[in-house]
Amino acid sequence: MTPMSDAIVFEQVSFAYADGRVVLDKLDLTIASGELFALVGRSGAGKSTLLRLVNRLALPAGGRVLVDGRDTREWEPIALRRRIGFVQQDVGLFPHMTVAENIGLLAHIERWPAERIDQRVDELLTLVGLSNDQRDRWPDELSGGQQQRVGVARALMLDPPVLLMDEPFGALDPLTRLALRREFRRLQSSLRKTVIIVTHDMREAFDLSDRMGAIDEGRLVAVDTREDLERSTHEFVRALMATVEPVTAGARES
Amino acid sequence: MTTLFEFWGAHQAELFAMLTRHVWLVAAATTLAVAIGVPLGIIAAKRPRVGKPLVVITNLVQTIPSLALFGFLLPLPFIGGVGARTALVALVLYGILPILQTTAAGIAGVDRSLIQAATAMGLTARQRLLLIEMPLALPSVLAGIRVSTVVGVGTATIAAAIGAGGLGEYIFRGLAMVDATVILAGAVPAAALALLADALLAWIGRRAADRHRRFFRRFSPGRRRVVVAATIAVTLILAAILVAVASTQRGASAPIIVGSKNFTEQLLLGELVAQTIERRAQLPVERKLNLGGTLICERALMSGDIDVYVEYSGTALTAVFKQPVVRNRASVLDIVRQHYAATGRTLLDPLGFNNTFAILVRGSVARELALRTISDAVPHARTWRAGFGYEFLEREDGYKGLARAYGLTFREPPRVMDLNLSYRALASGQVDLIAGDATAGAISALDLQMLEDNRAYFPPYDAAPVVRTSTLLAHPEIGDALRALGGRINEMSMRKMNEAVDIHRRDPSQVAREFLQQLQQ
């Protein structure tokens, strides 16, 4: 995979809810392979919808979404989703499976040999900063931070080239959040996945991303680096930037 | 209590057989209900448009009283008929609803975010169902199975009414004999069985709910799929075997099946017929005594579930063939014989007694008011309460005609009660007039007075065996054997035998055996 090939492309993508409310309106966005792209915006601005269009949990009403150069409509959904790790805010660990079973589930389904699964699970536990003796614990015995680490490990099990993260640290306390964010940055520097991370925390976006976009009223109002955003005159971008000034680790929920 | 234990002690083998039969019935029915209810529940959860009508339909089935459901099923081909098959079908129908509902609720109750996680991971719908939704819905499904099983234990007792066997046989026999000990002999183990099943399934459910993942812990997701598939396969195979066993219960060397209705005299007559065939015709006999009533016996005889039972000429005339009432004994027998012949059955010679309806009052009242005939009682009836069996209330030759013939009215509409219990109800003063059997042993034992039918309202009720003609052709010796009973049982002998069972608590088969021995001497 060449670093600068286009991994995910949105072309004139529109999407509306069943009740007719427009969420995305002819949106264009290109994310390069190996890039970590942060998406910020108000709640309900369409950030999560944008992620769901990538792994075909939703299909666009207009325009198209390309993953590895192929329209998501042409992808077989199961094959597409197994190439795309997904981390959601409420983690969604399966309560009837242990940590190791949660992480290894997809590999079992893909019929990996048991030793290889065990090996990979151990590797991932180390990678996300959990010790191997957590393997056989149940999700409800873990702290919120630990659960989200397991969530990240589960998303990485099949080593997918793309990772979608929907407010992954949003439900955590500020300190845990900060720690996880740092670790994730470290992780990404070695993994170089194509990552889209949705957040409404500007600090998080700045901390993590190579590039970021602000979404407002169904459109991308800015796609740039921090410096570009700071120079922006767009009203919504200025409002977003204002939230960064007081250095409070972004504990605010909008 | 001691009599109860004595009874069990004396009937150990029978009790064990009934208990086994009961457990078998409930286990088979529940297994089948799971095999049907769980998939339906999944469909109901996934496709609400299909699910809603499904729930409504199963709900409707649930509201049908079990005896009525057995009645509906009896005449149906393949699934109907007297015996375990019909009972199994009815029990399965009852068992499906709770399982369907809890399965649907359990699956619908799985956290949306887990479903999203599973879908986003790239699980197929089937993998999601088997690996995520079903395991998480398991405690709920188990709760449904528990309800279904406990209800099944209770409903299965009623299955005895259609000859399916089980502990209900004691209950019905006890009701027929008005013997609380015999009722308890069936009711107590049935209740214990229900409690035991409930406790066992509650324990399993607790284990599954409390730490339901531990239930699955030993299985890795890959093996778990195998386990789920194997469970489904085993369930289906088991269900198939059970159905096969249930439907082939009548093997090639089929015994002659003797039926009877569910009161003492019929039990005795069933035994008399059965023992006569065994002894004189040297044929193996299976007894399906204690069937729910005239219509159940009639349908069973029609469908070949029984080969022979004893019917009363007047009952056959009006209740079975819906003919107008005729009072001449010979004419009644002729008409009935023709109708039976036209429908593939043969009426053999009458046994010799006329078990007409007996309008009964308490002996003390009869003496006090000097009552001898039904007409004598009419002026007093206005202040009386009456209690009748449901058959008497419904039949053409029953209450309605009687009331017309005598101008009889009561203080309030007659109460519906079990025929066997009505003797006690009369004796204890709960009602003042009943319609019993003229040959009932309780009449003298409870000091009841039979009022003379002075307007000759009731048609004759000559008891005579009815045999399937095809059975008779295959085994002509049955006809010869039963003809030997013709005209040999008079009212007095019948009443004595009834009394021996009802009042002296003797075993019907023993009483019948002694009577037959007497006949031969």
Keywords:
heterodimer; A: 254 residues; alpha/beta; 6-stranded mixed beta sheet; 4-stranded antiparallel beta sheet; 9 helices; 10 strands; 36% helix; disordered C terminus; B: 521 residues; MetI-like fold; D-Maltodextrin-Binding Protein, domain 2; 5-stranded mixed beta sheet; 25 helices; 65% helix; elongated
Stretches of chain A where pLDDT falls below 50 for ≥5 residues? 246-254
Shape of chain B: elongated
* Secondary-structure-derived class of chain A: alpha/beta
CATH architecture tag of one domain in chain A: 3-Layer(aba) Sandwich
Strand order of the largest sheet of chain A: 6-7-8-3-9-10
The biggest sheet of chain B, with number of strands, parallel, antiparallel or mixed sense and barrel status, is: 5 strands, mixed
Radius of gyration of chain A: 18 Å
CATH top level label of one domain in chain A:
Alpha Beta
What portion of the residues of chain A fall into strands of 2 or more residues? 15-25%
The CATH class designation of the largest domain in chain B is Mainly Alpha
| Overall mean confidence score, pLDDT of chain B | 85
